[in-house]
Every structure is written in structure tokens, then in C-alpha cells.
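Box 3.1 A note on notation
Throughout this textbook, protein chains are presented in two layers. The first layer is the amino acid sequence; the second is a C-alpha cell string describing backbone geometry. Keep the layers aligned when reading.
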Amino acid sequence: MLTPRLECIVRHTKGKIIADIGTDHAYIPIYLIENNLCDYVIAGDIRTGPAEIAKTNVKNHNLSDKIEVRLGSGLSVLNENEADTIIIAGMGGQLITEIIEADLKIAHKCRLVLQPMNAQYELRKYLSDNGFKITDEDIAVEDFKVYNIINAKKGHETNLKDDIEYHLPKYLKTNKYYKKLYEKKYREFTKVINGLENSNDIDYKKLNLYKNWLKELKNYES
């Protein structure tokens, strides 16, 4: 049984050969194969412990012929053109950008399903500035947490015109969880502003930036 976050990732994952980077316990690869959503999965993890747990879980589901667990960093576990879709989920947005940047040639040849735990603004900026087009985006809600699932592929078109849209894209307004995402961004901006204002050494440039973002954000309330 997948969590709402993992279910949303799966709904946006299409392809014959999928790579799940940072697979942890291999829940997504197992689900994809058992539900005939792809032919083969390469599950990568940089940590020995999770990779061993993933191998055990795959073996217990009798799927060792359909899921290969590889130990390694990021996309280095893949050969060029080996997968058509790459999932990178459950880690910070900055780390996701570093993983993509380290093997940009491989990433440019695949569809990407990205689920950043934070730094969504920075990730969208990176994709836009480095030859990727965001083709689709969704929102998942799990308890009190709100997650973004971003689909991207090689391209240069972008629907993000203003800086604030890299925080809260207009194309998500029709999503049933848009209000929850808006509230999350509002809390985030307010928390940063309050922290800066109470600092002994105020970064006025950053403070003014966040105040402007907060002002613009109010125009995006549904």
C-alpha cells in the first residue's frame, strides 16, 4: 500500500524502463512491476543499508528478474539511454539539481519525475535555466504535509513568467490542493520574514525580497 505522496508519483510515471533514484525500500519499483506499469526498473541508492533492504524486498516479492538494485550516487548508476524515465523523489530540491547536473547528458534524454521535499523554487529555476521544460505538475497531501510532483523533459518552453511563479505556479490553480499549497508558501514566507526581522544582523536584501514575494503571493490566492 503506497502513501498518497508515492501514489501521486506513480500516477505521473510512464515508460518501459524506469529508474528510481534514491529508491530506499524499493516500494515504488515493486508497485510499478506488480501493477504492470512498466517492464523493468533500475533502483539506485547511494547508501548500503537501504540498498540491501531494497534487494531483500525485491527478492521477497519474487521480482529480482524485473527490478535491479544498484548501489551508487545519483544517475551514475545508469548508462546512457538505459532508462526512458527517471524518478528522483523524497530528497531536497537542491540535491535533486545536483544529481541532474552531475549527469546532465543522461537526464536530458529521459522524462523526469521529481518530488522535492524543499527548495521547489530553486529546482524549477534550475530546470528552466538548464534546458528542461516542465510538462506537468501535481500536488499531493499527506497528513499536514504538502508535496509537489514535477514532470520535466528536455525543452526550453516555460509557463513560468514572473519570479513568484517559480514559488507558486499559476498552472496549479485548478488543482484541488492548490489552497493548501498557497497556505504552505504563505507560512514559509512569513516565517522567513519574522526570522530576518528578529535577527541581530538583518539581511535587508533578503528581507525585502521576501516581503515583495509575500505581497505578490497575495495576488495568487484562489
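The beta strands are 17-21, 40-45, 67-71, 85-91, 111-116, 132-142, 145-154. DSSP finds eight helices and seven strands in the chain.
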